[in-house]
Amino acid sequence: MRKFIILLSLFFLLSPIVWAQEPGKVWTQESAKKFSIEEIQRLGLEANGLVLAARSQVNIASAGVVAASAYPNPEVVVMAGPVDRRIPESLTGPMTDQRTVTVNQPIENPFMRSARIGAAEAGVEAGRASLDQVRADLAAQLRVRAYELLLRQEQAALEQSIFDLLKEVHRRIKLNVERGESARFELIRAETELKSVENRKEAARLNAERARVALLQFTAGALPADFEVRASLKDAVALPPLDILRKEIPETNPEIVRLQAEQERTKLRIDQERASVLPSVNVLYSNFQDTQFNANTAGLSVRVPIFYRRRGEIDSAIFDSARIRETLDYRRYEVGQLFESAWQALQIAQRRVEMFESGLIKEAENAVEVAQAAYRFGERGLLELLDTQRVLRGILGDALQARFDLQAAAAEIDRLRAYYPKELIPE
């Protein structure tokens, strides 16, 4: 970009570019606070409501383990009341009261208890995997949005420089027309091109503002309004080799990990339902008191599953386990294909970047320089100069887009393998 402006300034004197955000307010880069990509990810992961909600789900699941580990409480029944006589008082004595206290303590099936606790613990693992997935998705989105903001700002700066150039061209042509050195048709053509470039410049500026607002939205307003991204579209992309990534992603992808935990939980639920068919035992103790007697009795209450053996609940758990297993197999395949697609996109973007940097931009800049010199000596018209500038603008725009596509593909790969600055995230 800077080299492009320097080459153009050989023929036209350009004034320094000042980007006005709104009328009467001038924005300067020094007045804004800069944040790195990692800092933006940290702020977003700390403030975004979806992450906080997913963390609450983990806490809820952890509380479920406490509930599943609790022992059943005893049940105490107290009964009391008067005793009415049916024979004369001379034989029974005076009328009195009687009282009965009964304690019922369930004895839990140890197989059902262990399966229930295991299922609750698997639910915690599933919740943590879901939290990791939300974090990875948000971190990737923040990274892509940050680089999109850089892309839009570069595009806006490009359109601004072209607008300043054509504005100077328009001024010089207008002077030549007034002196009778050029035809008025050249001025009309320059005015038309200037209005077109001005519209593109305004659209690029608005797109940059929209990208800024989108990034603020993903960080839940944690960034200041005048923030700047301390990064570049030319940042190097560092990823492990392809073979390592193919082995790593099925093991670290949060959705696969979550489905594995869900599958374990459904298996334990089957064990829990099957264990519930076994007879359940309650220990009973009862104390009876009246005027003449004080009786203590103890016994067992056994529930025998003869008529209904929880066939419906067991089948439901089996079918649910099959559903999770089939979903897991499909998601393994789908995540693998998503990675292969992201890797191919990364390779394509790298080749495009190399193509632009290997000399294509330089050739377009040289063509503009030649067209400027020819236009200055009257060998070429304004139309030829504008055509070469359009070609250079298109190549520069494509180069910016290729660099952004490279960063976006790398962010997608990091999302699939849940790679983000975890050490900066509070648990």
From TrEMBL:
<feature type="signal peptide">
    <location>
        <begin position="1"/>
        <end position="20"/>
    </location>
</feature>
<protein>
    <submittedName>
        <fullName>Outer membrane protein, cobalt-zinc-cadmium efflux system</fullName>
    </submittedName>
</protein>
<dbReference type="Pfam" id="PF02321">
    <property type="entry name" value="OEP"/>
</dbReference>
<keyword id="KW-0472">Membrane</keyword>
<dbReference type="GO" id="GO:1990281">
    <property type="term" value="C:efflux pump complex"/>
</dbReference>
<keyword id="KW-0175">Coiled coil</keyword>
<dbReference type="GO" id="GO:0009279">
    <property type="term" value="C:cell outer membrane"/>
</dbReference>
<keyword id="KW-0813">Transport</keyword>
<keyword id="KW-0732">Signal</keyword>
<keyword id="KW-0812">Transmembrane</keyword>
<dbReference type="GO" id="GO:0015288">
    <property type="term" value="F:porin activity"/>
</dbReference>
<keyword id="KW-0998">Cell outer membrane</keyword>
<comment type="similarity">
    <text>Belongs to the outer membrane factor (OMF) (TC 1.B.17) family.</text>
</comment>
<keyword id="KW-1134">Transmembrane beta strand</keyword>
<feature type="coiled-coil region">
    <location>
        <begin position="187"/>
        <end position="214"/>
    </location>
</feature>
<dbReference type="InterPro" id="IPR051906">
    <property type="entry name" value="TolC-like"/>
</dbReference>
<dbReference type="InterPro" id="IPR003423">
    <property type="entry name" value="OMP_efflux"/>
</dbReference>
<dbReference type="GO" id="GO:0015562">
    <property type="term" value="F:efflux transmembrane transporter activity"/>
</dbReference>
